[in-house]
Amino acid sequence: MGLSVIILAAGQGTRMRSKLPKVLHRLAGRPLVQHVIDAAKALNADKIHLVYGHGGEQVQAAIADPALNWVLQAEQLGTGHAVQQVVPHLNAADKVLILYGDVPLTNAETLKELVAIQDGKDIALLTVSLPDPSGYGRIVRDAGHRVTGIVEHKDANEAERQIREVNTGILCASGADLVRWLAALRNDNAQGEFYLTDIIKACHDQGGVIHTRHPASAMEVEGVNNRVQLATLERAYQAARAHALMVAGVTLRDPARLDVRGEFQHGLDVEIDVNVILEGRVRVGDNVRVGPNVVLKNVTLGDGVEIKANTVIEDAIIGDGSDIGPFARIRPGTVLAGSVHIGNFVELKKAHLGAGAKAGHLAYIGDATVGERVNISAGVITCNYDGANKHQTVIGDDAFIGTDSQLVAPVQIGEGAYIAAGSTITKDAPAEALTICRAREQRSILGWEKPAKK
Ligand code: UD1
Ligand code: CA
Question: Which positions are catalytic?
Fold first, then answer.
């Protein structure tokens, strides 16, 4: 007996007021539907069927995942009709779990339990009690508290509308029963739709039991219909993430001002100041300090690294004990060894800097290999681009690159070389020598007359 997961994602999402299909809107950096796919994968589903309709091509292009079976629902005639489209792909012996592409935050643990309690012709149904249940399908129970059916809000009478326990839509049933119940659905209801929820009554009428479970938090079953709900769920997600980080030993100056959009691994005694964004895969060692307004995307920081305010780092590896910023920009392909110092208004791209190298202010180092203990002074630029191609700059250990020098690549600076301030270096500079290359030596014109205003 295997597990098939069906993800319904054919709805239009009109209230998003967007050209982007609703399920591609991002929560914590990932499309809504990706969260659902990941939950299905966490259950080790044998098959994941994604029912798509509106914006199908866009969704397929954005979620290129070979694990998915794409099933088109050309016309949206209701949730039951959506699941009917998957029938030809279903295995009678499988358990089938139904999820929604716009309900991103369901815990895999909650779903695991639902799958575990589904048995024989029974249905496992996730329900939740809401202070304001309007709009939702209501869970109807008999005197013995057994679920007998679900009545949609628009079809409900006054008494039924008082019921606060509602259908989340998430349920698990056996493939064989589901196929049979789906075949019997009718659309003679207030919305003229084929309701998936009608299988609940069918199950009950045929002697099946509807086992219900509640999620640990209502956030787990909330859907996104508009951008207000998208923001609400994003905040709920981030609050939970921040809470978990603090429990795991990370100091957050303000848990409400950290966004984690991806994977974050950390060592001991990490401190994160306000307005920090961690994206993609971020790993930091022990005693790392991250200052305010910092963005780290796909970054590894060694032990004792300090990232100062307003620094942006992407696709880079920063060695132990290095300090960066404030106001530094570290672009993809940068690798810093230990104890490197990068100060304000320094941009690095595809730059490898050796241990103890320093670039304290106002420099651009791109496509460069920089040795150990090299000092890069203010205003140094590697001229790496000739308008067509990129070229490499190689700087040997212990070299000193004077202020406002341009290193026109490809060029090599020898070990211990000293480049005089204001030099434009177009040829290799030898080791241990002072190389000076200025357009004109300094001269002073005595008695020079200042230009007068006409
Ligand atoms: C549905 C449930 C309701 C439940 C509520 C929870 C039914 C009949 N009603 O109502 O009991 O309380 O969800 O949010 O199931 N979809 C398709 N194809 C369709 C129709 C819908 O893929 O033809 C998808 C939508 O994209 C959406 C989901 O199914 O992700 C739910 O559809 P929606 O129209 O929002 O259902 P509700 O009326 O809210
Ligand atoms: Ca809905």
Answer: 361
List own/partner pairs for 283-289 with CB under 8 A and 24 or more apart: 285/320
Report pLDDT digits (tens) over 66-96: 999 999 999 999 999 999 999 999 999 999 9
Q: What angle do CA 347, 352, 356 make, to 5 degrees?
A: 90
Q: How far is the CA of 78 from the centre of ligand 1 (A)?
A: 7
Q: How far is the CA of 46 from the centre of ligand 2 (A)?
A: 27
Residues with CB under 6 A from ligand 1: 8-11, 51, 73, 76-79, 81-82, 100-102, 136-137, 150, 152, 166-169, 195-197, 223
CB under 8 Å to 168, separation ≥6 — which residues? 103, 126, 127, 128, 215, 221
Of ligand 1's atoms, which has the minimum distance to the CA of residue 76?
23
What percent of the chain shows pLDDT beyond 70? 100
Q: Whose CA is nearest to atom 27 of ligand 1?
A: 11
Domain boundaries, the chain: 3-221, 237-445
Q: Which CATH entry fits the domain spanning 237-445: 3.30.420.40, 1.20.58.220, 2.160.10.10, 3.30.830.10?
A: 2.160.10.10
For the domain spanning 3-221, the CATH number is: 3.90.550.10
Tell how strand 30-31 and strand 26-27 pair up. antiparallel
Task: Looking at the CA of residue 196, tell me the nearest atom of ligand 1.
Answer: 15
Task: Tell me whether domains 3-221 and 237-445 share a fold.
Answer: no
The number of the ligand 1 atom at minimal distance from the alpha carbon of 8 is 22
Left if phi > 0, otherwise alpha if psi is -120 to 50, otherwise beta: which for 207? left
- Check: CB of residue 383 under 8 Å from CB of residue 405: no
Token look-up 């590697």 returns 382
- pTM for this prediction: 0.92
Whole-number Å distance between alpha carbons of 64 and 277: 26
* CA of 136, nearest ligand number: 1
Which ligand sits closest to the CA of 135? 1
Q: How far, in Å, from the CA of 279 to the mean position of ligand 2?
A: 30
Q: pLDDT averaged over the chain?
A: 96
Average pLDDT over residues 255-270: 98
